[in-house]
Amino acid sequence: MINSMLNEDYRVYPKRWIYLLAVSMINFSNGNTWITYAAITFYTNNYYSNSNAALFFNVIFMVLSIPVGFLACWWIDKFGLRSAYHIGTWANFIGNIIRLVASGTFIDPSLRFPIAITGQAVAAFAQPFVMFLPTKLAAYWFADNERAIANTLSSMSNPIGIAVMYSLAPVFVNKTTPDNFFNMNIAVTAVAVIPVILSLFINKSKPPTPATPSRDTDVDAPPFLEGVKICFKSKTFIVLSICLGGGVGLFNALYNNLQPALCVKGYNPTFNGGMGTLLIMSGLVGAAISGIIVDKWGEFEKVMKVSFCIAGVAAASLSICINYEGVQWWVILSIFIFGAAGFSIYPIGLEMGVEATFPVAEATSTGLIIMIGQVQGVFYVIMTNLAVGKPDPHDMAIQTCVDTNSQNHTVLTWKWPFLIWLICISVLITSFVAFFWPKYKRRNYEQGKKWNELDL
Question: Does the entry feature the keyword Membrane, yes or no (predicted)?
Fold first, then answer.
């Protein structure tokens, strides 16, 4: 009888799965858009007549995420999931249309990059609005034993989109079809249409009745600025945001540097693109497993610490094998383990941010973690690119980065950048294991609320 009464107070609706699909698809599409050019760096720089075009296309997402991120945090917490989804979906779609126009051979080569970077900037504006949604969606629409897996599916859709595009870009643009950017962008834009269609079904920010006690009407989230202050007064949140955000930033640096680091050692473009895909797909497996464990037993801290340490070992292995040719098995194994362990941290880390700062609104804690990650990402990408070196004659003889001698000056070695990358990961892991001792404020509140209702 008591359980029946509790079920009537807190219930979930079938429509939550449509919302999950919609949020997942816009994150997938925006991930496609962000990383479109990272796996075809040299072709991109040549086609857009800018020696740093691919780098700029990547970095603009990270740079714009900071000012737009604060706007998105405030907007989502003030006006809800519905309007944020529509803003992100349409900005992503319009940005893709502009990029599509810029990639046509009918556009003067001198105008391609300015137009394309404008489209990339518009799509980058969408990123915070869509990447901050998963924890909000999970909190309002899903039961407490579904939140982690719902957050995993929706938040991991962004890196899955990155992986798919990283793998497909070399199929569209390669030695045989070096100017096939228009057809590639048709495919990316077609994916961006799907969230636009799904937006027809996103007509409410929250369900008619709460899914859990933490989203009940008697729980008042503090105003945005007060919420930000609460986050930064929490030692747990500060450690989490620096370490998890740093992990996001180091992932961005790895994705930006992986293709040029592999091609200088003679690995073919198909293998290089496949490694980007493997990194994410192994991460999806790890994230799904960790999400199930957390939903069932709630062991946020233990899962994150174990995963972080395993990822550190894999990062050390990758930093070594990236300097050798013909060791595909070693590269594959290192990337698989790093992806499976590293990505298992991301979605449950976002959930942990909500737990540690409850009742601060979900978009605030999630947004701050992602923004801190993007700041670190810009730093890591720039720092590692400054540490590149000139390849020796043997590397120049086996490299698969460029086809013509006039572009040989763009071929670089990545020994020192990956060493710096490994040192940064090691510092983050050590800090996280030593200083991260969380309190589960949201879960404790929900358990207390249920026990109080049972006593009544």
Answer: yes
At residue 260 the predicted structure's pLDDT band, cuts being 50, 70 and 90, is confident
Residues 6+ apart with CB under 8 A from 454: 2, 6
CA atoms within 13 A on the CB side of 67: 6
Q: How many CA atoms, within 13 angstroms, populate the side-chain half-sphere of residue 237?
A: 26
DSSP track, 64-127: HHHHHHHHHHHHHHHH-HHHHHHHHHHHHHHHHHHHHHHTSTTS-HHHHHHHHHHHHHHHHHHH
State pLDDT tens for residues 185-222: 999 999 999 999 999 999 998 888 887 776 665 567 78
- Determine the 3-state secondary structure of 217 from DSSP: coil
Q: Which two tokens stand for residue 189?
A: 């834009």
Taking alpha carbons only, the member of 372, 107, 84 closest to residue 232 is 372
pLDDT in tens, 337-388: 998 888 778 888 888 888 888 888 888 888 898 888 878 887 887 888 788 8
Distance CA 259, CA 248 (A): 18
CA 206 to chain centroid, in Å, comes to 24
By the 8 A CB rule, do 36 and 185 touch?
Answer: yes
Cα separation, 241 vs 348, in Å, equals: 13
The 3-state DSSP class for residue 37 equals: coil
Cα 425-428-430 angle, rounded to 5 deg: 110
- Provide CATH code, domain 13-455: 1.20.1250.20
1's tokens? 């009888």
Beta bridge partners of 389: 413
Neighbouring residues of 422: CB distance < 8 A, sequence distance ≥ 6: 315, 316, 319
Q: Where do we find the tokens 């995420």?
A: 65
- Cβ atoms of residues 401 and 413 within 8 Å: no
Residues written for the chain: 456
Cβ-proximal residues to 331 (8 Å cutoff; 6+ apart), any chain: 262, 267, 275, 318, 321, 322
By the 8 A CB rule, do 227 and 356 touch? no
Return the number of other C-beta atoms located less than 10 Å from residue 396's C-beta: 14
DSSP symbols for 241-266: HHHHHHHHHHHHHHHHHHHHHHHTTT
Which candidate, 195, 122, 190, 186, places its Cα nearest to that of 158? 195
Residue with tokens 């070399």: 170
At 203 the three-state DSSP class reads coil
Q: Which of 245, 220, 219 is nearest to 232 (CA)?
A: 245
CA distance 172 to 166: 11
User: Apex CA 177: angle with CA 172 and CA 178, to 5°?
Assistant: 95
